[in-house]
Amino acid sequence: MSAHDAIVLAGGAAKRLGGVDKPAVSVGGRALLDRVLAACGGAGRTVVVGGRRATVRPVHWAREEPPGGGPVAALDAGVRHVQADTVLVLSADLPFLTRETTGRLLDVLAADGEREGALLTDPDGRDQPLVAAYRTEPLRREIALLATEYGSLAGLPLRLLTHELDLARVAADADPLASFDCDTWEDVSTARARIREHGTVLDEWITAVKDELGYELDVDITVLLDLARDAAHGVARPAAPLTTFLVGYAAGRAAAGGGGPEAVAEASRKATALALRWADEAAGDDGKAKGADAG
Question: Which residues form the DUF6457 domain (predicted)?
């Protein structure tokens, strides 16, 4: 994957949400904007076009002219700050966008040297120009031509821009929710319910906690759940949260010293072995006590 920057469009009036600050709306305890920033965390420089607000990581800020001038004007403001030859372009209301999807877009573009961009198509086959990777110079060129032709970029639809670029289409088959956006409160409610579904809620929760704590170490949920079970059964129920806390603390110290994800696995292995030894001792003592009673 080549070096790249990212532009996140976080302006707009959000009229269908009653004019609230849509990028700050929370889904799964994280602002929509922060969720998108996590999906483009590998960018060398991330430019957010819109009003300044608190974000989960540092970004560069830009503002379209005039404010509220639409996506092409916003893209023009953002691309002025881009340094890399390739740029991800994303809207700030994509709760299910992942690094896997942005990585696919970048890989497709890198593999085809003739194309000027790669955009996602939704499950219905519609182009998603704000879930895309573009080559920076063709993007700048076409924006400048539009400004010359129309005199202003304000209010221009994105299709005028993408129509002039040679683009690859990337189907959303592997991640059909990647282009799901939150335009209405019903969309927000749907997204909030979706992340609480069985099979996804723990991954969502762990990701939210790591973002909140600024903690990037990979976590094997299965290993930690098995550890909590063994501590609860082999020692006492309160031992489960206390043990997982101590394992996390030990892994954090190891990571600070240069350790990686294996630090969690090693700390969990040691704590699990200890819990099982406690369980074995208790089982042995119970057996001896029963034998003595029988005698």
Answer: 198-282
Any bridge partners for residue 285, and if so which? none
Are β-strands 117-121 and 60-62 bridged in parallel, bridged antiparallel, or unpaired?
Answer: unpaired
For the stretch 177-198, pLDDT in tens is 999 999 899 999 999 998 888 6
- Look at 39-43, 51-55, 254-258, 286-290 and tell me which has the smallest mean pLDDT: 286-290
Tell how far CA 215 is from the center of its chain: 14
Residue with tokens 């404010």: 67
Cα–Cα distance for residue pair 89/109, rounded to 1 Å:
13
Residue 88's nearest CA partner among 176, 172, 4 is: 4
**Is the pLDDT higher at 292 or at 130?**
130
Predicted local distance difference test score (pLDDT) of residue 1: 42
The helix-helix angle for 201-213 and 221-234 (nearest 10°) equals 100
Full-model pTM: 0.80
Q: Are 270 and 258 in contact (CB under 8 A)?
A: no
> Is residue 41 a contact partner of residue 59, using CB atoms and an 8 Å limit?
no
Dihedral of CA atoms 66, 68, 69, 73 in degrees, nearest 10, equals 90
Q: What are phi and psi of 169, to 5 degrees?
A: -105, 135
Q: Which residues pair with 161 in a beta bridge?
A: none
Integer Cα distance of 108 and 169 in angstroms: 9
Backbone torsions φ then ψ of 271, nearest 5 degrees: -70, -35
Strand ranges inside 63-156, DSSP E: 86-91, 117-121, 127-135
